[in-house]
Amino acid sequence: MGIHKHLASRIAQALRLAFGGEAGAGLLLLSVALLAMGIANSPLAGTWHHLLHAPLGWSPVAKLDSLHLWINDGLMAVFFFVVGLEIKREVLDGELATPAQRRLPVLAAIAGMVLPALVYLVAVRGDPALAAGWAIPAATDIAFAVGVLALIGKRAPPSLRLLLLTVAIVDDLGAVAVIALFYTASIKLAWLALAATVLAAMAGMNRAGVTRGLPYVLLAAALWYAVLHSGVHATVAGVAAAMTVPLKVDRGGESLLLRMEHALVPWNAYLIVPLFGLANAGVALAGSPNLTLPLAVGLGLFLGKQLGIFGAIFLADRSGFAPRPAGASWVQLWGLSVLCGIGFTMSLFIGSLAFPAAPALVEQAKLGVMAGSLASALAGFALLRLAAHPPPPGEGDHP
After folding, report:
1. Measured between alpha carbons, how far is 331 from 388 in angstroms, rounded to an integer?
2. Closest C-alpha to 176, from 41, 280, 291, 85
3. Average of pLDDT values for 7-33?
4. pLDDT (tens digit, 9 = 90+) per residue, 200-252?
5. Structural domains in the chain (count)
6. Is 318 inside any structural domain?
7. What angle do CA 193, 194, 196 make, to 5 degrees?
């Protein structure tokens, strides 16, 4: 076990160094998005689509009979597992551990999901064919947003990055809830009961003090398989499984949750998410598609996110509900709010769930996600650069 742990740590460290940390992860995602767009608008488009969607000659899971499904329903379950580990750590022993710490990020994240959804619904003008996409602009891509913020370097106060991370963590939890509640097919009770049994067994191992990783990994795979066949989206199993992994320190002075998180985060950032982006971000620009859906998604991300998050921070500070982060100016907080409009991974993922029987609408949603995310990244970066030198404490109290 020790050999595998140290090997995983060395590989993780090599990935971090190779891609330059958080800024490198963001730039890698940008490169992947551009590559996917380039392929989708090149003579290779047909070949690439066939590679992703053609039925596999053999699959160990019959329900996943294409490479695209393995990426979206298989690898993305690992992505959500890591998200679950991060959420549990922050809630139990991190920056969301106390009610006072939770107030601002929870309020900002909720407002940052509600306002984009409202902007979207207003923009589609009640079209029932498009209403299912309301959650597409409600999500924030934490890797992309943190990567852009990292480009500002030490000119941005640490409290700004902390707020972005905590808002994104709560946002991720909200996105998982939305997927489970609103993008679930018909429920198959037998499979759901099996999933509940496996989850209970994992929770029982936690209570019994089991701190070896292999039993959790094996049962997590069984949980994923059961959820995949239950009608609930398989990626929800990733978050559910993560909630059972023990955070407490074992006899060897280590935490299984932290070991798993540290080992998987680089794979998430530098392999799983880029692969997902490569498989899902490409959209053909030829022709004249209906712009209602792209415009609704783009406005939801660019306008809805900043209005919701910045408005929540401003009202919380002014009302005394929760103070704004120390050392952060209002312009910096505005820039941060705009950055949260980078949807990319989560927005693309929800877009694929919103219109499962309408590939043309999925493509239109992709266009909106790419446009809204790009506008948010550029505008957020510009605002943060303009506010690179925060005012001394006590100044800049008015937005």
Report:
1. 10
2. 85
3. 63
4. 999 999 999 999 999 999 999 999 999 999 988 888 999 999 999 999 988 88
5. 2
6. yes
7. 65
